[in-house]
Amino acid sequence: MKKTITTILLALTAAVTVLGARTYSCIVPRPLSIEPGEGQLLLEKGTALYASPGLDFETAFLKERLGSVLAFDIPVVKTPSEGGISLVLTEGYGPEAYSLRVNAEGVRIEASASAGIFYGVQTLLQMLPPAVYGDTSLELTRCALDAVTVDDSPRYGYRGTMLDVSRTFYDTDHVLRLIDWMAAHKLNRFHWHLADDNGWRIEIRKYPELTEKGAWRGDAEVSPAAYGQGHGRYGGYYTQKEIRQVVKYAADRHIEIIPEIDLPGHSRSLVGVFPEMACPVDVPYISANGETDNVLCVAREENYRMLRDIFKEIASLFPSEYIHIGGDEVDHTPWNNCPHCQALAREQGLEGPQEIHSHFVYRLEDIIHGLGKKMAGWDEIVISDARYDTSSMVYAWRSVKSGRMSVDKGYRTVVQIGEFCYLDMKQSRAERGHSWAGIVPLSKTYSLEPDEILVGAPADSALIVGVQAGLWGELLAWPPRLMEYQLFPRLCALAEVGWSSRDSRDFADFERRLYGEHFSRLYNMGIAFRVAPPEVVYDSLSGSLRVRPPHPSAVVRYAVDGAPTSASPVCRGEVVTDAPERMRFATFFGDGLRSIAVGASNIDLYHYIDPEMTVESNFPLLEGNLESLARRGGTGYSDRVLREGDVLTYRMASPVECSRITVSSGAPSSGMFYVTDAYVEYETEDGTVVRAGDLYHGELSFEPSAPVTQVRIVMTDSNDGYTAVFHGLRIEK
Predict the structure, then answer these.
(1) What is the CATH T-level fold of the domain 3-152, as seen in this structure?
(2) What are the Cα distances from residue 521, in Å, to 270, 515, 549?
């Protein structure tokens, strides 16, 4: 039941145009063609909705959304009416194309398929007040739409989002919300990464152990605790009933779900439950993600029978023409040492582990084709000279080069290149996220040009079927709603890359539309999207901090010794201060959304000192780490699990006089490897030893009472059985 907003904006009840920009000026993704008209159409009491037969969902969907704006009901009628809304199926349009016309006679959306009608409805919704996406009602008695003609169709047929639910499990409600957000941006493929090392997330009735055991982590489980989620039992899975619910929900919104079971590597959740599926060898190896025992034996025939059973159930649940088999990041160590795999290689004439890998993929391809489906996989499956069926679809993730390789070999290729499309990457150096593919800000994602894969390659651009965002789950368990923060607004950018024509895309215009209306739409959808922080620079000559907001309309607030709140003073461009190092600034949007708090980007030049020092340890660190820790910004990694009595010592070349020292640990980008059981002490020039305090979440700042000669981190327990990351000291003047 919708809540009602009792205070109605009188200006909106008269006409939307009083707000300034045209009602069609901030559409995301940008349509192919927008032709302004003259005048306006008023939606008011008496406005009716007509739809061609076969558009029941689109009709109900639009009617429900209009209820979030209008104070009156929009009746559904059997014939078009003057000044009403018409959804009309007709010939002459592509499978997802539509036209939208608004004039004094009414609103008319035409398409040849229900998908086109649905996308036309999404464009129409963006011409209404952002509250159309919310759970409350504006209760407007009239709402104006500017006259316009929109002719639109997507650039690519595949416009996707991949969600990894193995590393961090998201329940059905979370998945349904994501599907809603995808639909609002005209995305049409949901790649559901259902099984990986970290958890088996789909019920397989013939093998209930997969979810009874393989869906859970913890100290007493098949898979140990990971990613900072604690040591108790955690995880989850989707029942087949829930899978069918999600599939239906997505199909109604014209989104196809492509399921993925990652094989033959990344199979720790499978091998952990059925260890006999691994090679019968005891050889140590660590996968690219730090896992052991996660590779299937390629020579074991029983494995293929089991996989056929599993894929048979999956095929019955998902109407998608594709099943994704993974195929990435396989450690070849067990195959190289397995007598059965080596015997298979001799029998089949397989030269090396890559051809053993291809043999496995061939077997899965045969299974999947036998179920009436087509195969998809990561780009590693086409590294060898193997020739799979040309209907197979390859997801290029490692580099532009790997995408070009896939296209050159004639495979349908989805562009999911890490440096553009991996939305678990950091958005700036100060934020959470991975960085192996670089920093991926909004502008980088928007800059993706899929056809550049073809530069210098004699290939057909038609083989690039589309683009996809990838969101891996290592970091998503904490803090809450981090998924939304990582996805948006970068997913908006990728939606425009996939939908809009190359020539129409312009980042400055995209940002204008985001700030102009689209952020308000995301806010009303309940998305805790990322708000960009301001740029702050310290001018030592004037003693002022000069602040540039991320957009002219953005609100920036500041605070001393802490993060700004919604009650903090607004910054008007600069702040004069004699303590610039204590100032923090943040951008605010709406009620409760703010950016990370930042200080001056150049404050290090004036605030920190870097005295000469050496670092000593009575426990092993990786090679070169002691030298690195002697520098501010340096990093060191323990080479074993920490123990009680371990000590790391920072020894100054001469006594250091300073105002504050900060000791820190951990990898903030992943939320892991913090020192959890330790205290910090320092020694002054007269030999006095002072206990500064315990490390809290891996960090401690203290103000020394005298010049310092040593700082020591003393471990008091086993650090919860984990290794740790240490950092160089931050010493303030």
Answers:
(1) Chitobiase; domain 2 (3.30.379)
(2) 41, 10, 21
